[in-house]
Amino acid sequence: QELARLIDEGRLGQIVSASARLHNWRPQSYYDQPGRGTRARDGGGVLLTQAIHTLDLLVWLAGLPEEARAYAATSGIHRMETEDLAMAAIRFSGGAIGTVSATTCAYPGYPDEIDIIGTRGMARLGGRLLAVSFHNGTELSVEDEAAGGAGADPMAFPHHHHRAVLADFLDAVESNGEPRVNGREALKVHRLIDAILGASESGQAHRV
Asked: Which ranges of the chain have pLDDT less than 50?
């Protein structure tokens, strides 16, 4: 939320690059569970099951990319139906470019990271820490004590943020208002994932 505020206030300047990196680790035993990593149960692989949360944040912060070129594969590390490794180059309507790197092959697992590079500074959101460096020499650091989610343990997180999302939705229902994330907003990240997978399958750039 603090990073979104900085971007909205223009303190980073114009965004020239926005990238997301999710280097998780899942052992084969994770995918040996019935249906895990299949289209029928999970709907997809690392992009839809793990990276979707980080990509959703990227879209919220930088906007929805308009084009993707990508590769996705099932590595020799896992036996599974869907992808456990995906790489993409993305381009935004304003001219900014970036990358997406998502995998469950990165032993022992690392915190997710989002990099936003602007004409006035750069911000890195990694794990529970936001670090911002401005061109004028000032810096900003914000730590989220409620954050978590190690790259190796899918359950290593508290539930403060889940409660906040549910509370916001219930408040919208009771007040007949609009939740912070409605259905249209939630579907944006699915458009990006579909474009990355489509670009990988076709070998061509895909519109988002």
From this structure: none
Query: 206 forms bridges with which residues in the sheet?
Result: 68
Residue where the block lists tokens 């915190």: 111
The burial class, CB within 10 Å (0-12 / 13-18 / 19+), for 24 is: buried
How many angstroms separate the CA atoms of 46 and 146, rounded? 24
The per-residue pLDDT for range 90-105, each reduced to its tens digit, is 999 999 999 999 999 9
Burial of 116 (0-12, 13-18, 19+ CB in 10 A): buried
All structural domains of the chain: 2-207 (3.30.360.10)
Contact criterion met (CB below 8 Å) for 90 and 65: yes
Question: How long is the chain?
Answer: 208
